[in-house]
Amino acid sequence: MPACAALPLAERATPLYTASHMVEMHVRYTGDKHCELVHGPSGSVIETDAPKDNQGRGERFSPTDLMGAALASCILTTLAIVAERDGIVLQGAEARVTKEMHQNPRRVARLPVVVRMPGGISQPQRSKLEMIAHTCPVHRSLHPEIEAPITFIYPDEPAEL
Fold first, then answer.
1. Model confidence pLDDT, tens digit, residues 63-83
2. Contact 151, 161 (CB under 8 A)
3. Is the pLDDT of residue 7 over 50?
4. What architecture (CATH level 2) is domain 63-161?
5. SS3 state of residue 48
6. For residue range 45-67, what is the model confidence (pLDDT) as tens digits?
7. Beta-sheet pairing, 150-153 with 113-116
8. What are the residues facing 49 on neighbouring strands?
């Protein structure tokens, strides 16, 4: 039994996760390797399918596709939070993520992300935003064996891909 469990409820440390930090989602298997995911707070729906290379038809995002999409979306959202606070215009920024699978055992191996930034961002702002991108919650939550390099492209610099 953890030491804090022996303490009266009022004397226990504040839990790391509180109700305001939790989101409930519901997933229903609909057959034929398809699932319907419902975001509890908004009711927004996403459907998934197994990928073609794993007995599916590839008609929707696969669960591991969503992992890559979540990473790219999280990077842009985290950048937007800082950009808005610092008065940096981020409108038009885009990210592309490529999911690379390891076959044995089957798992995500790499999620390289390329972020195309809008113009007008100074060098000090670029340095700050590039550092911030690596702090998005999804990037921080990835297993250490998953490589997730982030490359930034600016319109006033030649692309190096």
1. 999 999 999 999 999 999 999
2. yes
3. no
4. 2-Layer Sandwich (3.30)
5. strand
6. 999 999 998 898 989 999 999 99
7. parallel
8. 34
**The two structure tokens encoding residue 146:** 């998953």
**Cα gap 92→118, rounded to integer Å:** 6
Neighbours of 91 (CB within 10 A): 7
How far is 118 from 101, CA to CA, in rounded Å?
30
Query: DSSP code of 147?
Result: B
CA within 13 Å, CB half, 155:
9
CA dihedral angle for residue 71, residue 75, residue 76, residue 77, rounded to 10 degrees = 90
Tokens of 126: 């670029």
Query: How many whole angstroms separate alpha carbon 38 and alpha carbon 26?
Result: 5
Tokens 């006033």 locate to 156
